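Re-run requested by the PI after the first attempt was lost when the workstation crashed. Everything re-entered from the original request form. Ligand of interest: glycine.
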Amino acid sequence: MSLSRVFVFLLCLPGLLLANERPPAAAIASAHPLASQAGMAILAQGGNAFDAAIAVSAVLAVVEPYGSGMGGGGFWLLHRASDGKDIMIDGRETAPLAAHRDMYLDAQGEVIPGLSMNGPLAAGIPGQAAALVHLAEHYARLPLRTSLAPAIQHAREGVAVGESYRRMAGFRLEALRAWPETAAIFLHNGEVPAAGHRLVQTDLAETLSRLAENGLDGFYRGDTAKAVLTAMERHGGIWSQADFDSYRIIEREPIRSHYQGHEIISAAPPSSGGVALATILHILAQFPLDELDEVARTHLLAEAMRRAYRDRAQYLGDTDFVEVPLERLSHPHYGAGLAAAIRLDRATPSSDLPGVAAAPGGTHTSHFSVLDSEGNYVAATLSINYPFGSGFVVPGTGLLLNNEMDDFSSRPGSPNAYGLVGAEANAIAPGKRMLSSMSPSFVRNPDSLVVLGTPGGSRIISMVLQGILAHIDGAPLEAWIGRPRVHHQYLPDKLYLEPDALDEETRLALIALGHQLEPLASPWGNMQALLWDKRTAQVSAASDPRGGGQALVIPNK
Ligand code: GLY
């Protein structure tokens, strides 16, 4: 090859790569059809994946108020095609500046039931509004006025409530009835509204409009902030303007791990997701999973989860406040070391591992995934923690506040049954972010990209893991997203099974290995995932059959 031809080839290469990196279609999967449709409408108006992410986040806040909201926070994992940058936007809530380590304990040092769950004291300083402004200013293309328009419209005109709404409202009925403003918006005559009832949120529409018009000042200052602080003072909250002034979005480097030729990119602390996924995958990499039967595979999965969730409880917290051995925990050698102690013929009782207090973790949340025609993509997991968060709506704003403070360890430092002290890393401190399990993730190799995530509290990590493994095994997206899942989180020492997970023979074999099986009556999770198969040049999307979401794929024109 002559020198000039080499030069020409090299000159063309970046261009070719860029051309190859454009997907043949845009795709969105989210937990609600109106959110997916809003995202697509924003793409059609010339927005990119980041504009769509703003629109989807805000619409979910309106139409799925039990999962996430403007009174909550989340993590937006971004990939920008123009420079190949992966970045995590950390819009997690923070503990108020007046918070303190023992704020949920009585004089005897016992946890006061419900205090970190219900009402204004349970809420962390919301980060979602700041995150949407940050996305708009640094990554998106359209003004917030445009990307927030669908959410404002749905809040103002109302949306029909569905079965998921009714189930969650029934679950949190007491908390919703506790506050007149909350009951007036989310209930009908104090009861769970009938299917089809229109949920109208005019105050929330105004709150969103102030954000759209004035950015951060429209939420963390001015009328919205004033209403929030007045309500806090009136109802026993501890927030001040200083909490709003000091709230910051943080851009974080995601956690990266490698497994069977794929790169896994996931959330960094204050999420435990990326680190736990790395540990589990590095443990599993020590075994020939492909050659093993379902009993051995499930056994190893449970043993790997057990160990990673123990480490989660022991070490993880907000890295801006505590030292977390991130490099060690996410290093392949560490996983290999843990794997060496796993026996194939016997489950390790969790009590045989160095003890630590069990990890807390909320149960609800929402996830969506977006891919645009330029090759930008977003995996975002958003939360107000429990269904309908703290149940407290700030009068005049429609803002339903989170109860994310419950994700802190309310009583760290207490010795457990083994005399060891755990969960210190996740103790409450002013301005600190509470530990999360939210795991928005990308799985990439030269042939494919998967963008995925799910709600589900502490089970988020194990669900995302099983999605990753199934994809790497070659299962089609539409098949693996609905597959029954298993879960182990160290404590309680149980292997949880979704309905229909594992046949009777496999269950008996796992019991014989020493696993304590806990079959659950209800399914869990609501995965929203996209696949860009670069070998076949096809994009597909899937919304978990367990939920009422929608996956859309629109081919490029
Ligand atoms: N509140 C659920 C989580 O952050 O993991």
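Saved to the shared folder this time. The chain is about 35% helix and 15% strand.
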